[in-house]
Amino acid sequence: MVAKLIDVFFGCWHSRYSFPVTIRGTSRRPQAGALTGTYVVCLDCGREFPYDWQQMKVITSPAERREYVAALATKQAA
User: Fold this and answer.
1) Backbone torsion region of residue 56, taken as left when φ is above 0, otherwise alpha when ψ lies between -120 and 50, otherwise beta
2) What is the pLDDT, as a whole number, of residue 78?
C-alpha cells in the first residue's frame, strides 16, 4: 500500500515508449506481449506494456486488459 502511494508521487509517468515490437516464432515471449503478441517498453524505466496494434494504443490498466480479453473471446465465439 505504501509502495503504491510512493509510486504515485515519485514513480515513472510512462510518457515515452519504444516503437511496438511484434513477437514472431519461438523467441522469448515477454509477459506483456503474451496478451496481444505486441508490446512497447517505457524508455525511462524499462517496464513493458501490451500494445493493441488494431487500435494503435498501449494497454496500461487492468480494466483495459479485461476488456481486450473479453473482446477477443466474443470475436472468437462468432
Assistant:
1) left
2) 62
| Strand ranges inside the chain, DSSP E | 21-22, 38-41, 48-52, 57-58
C-alpha cell at 24: 514472431
Q: How far apart are CA 73 and CA 44, in angstroms?
A: 34
C-alpha dihedral sign at 27, 40, 30, 12:
positive
In what order do the strands lie in the sheet containing 38-41? 21-22, 38-41, 48-52, 57-58
Reading the chain (78 residues) residue by residue, the pLDDT tens digits are 776 777 778 888 888 999 998 887 666 667 777 788 899 999 988 888 999 888 898 988 888 888 888 887 787 776
Domain edges within the chain: 2-77
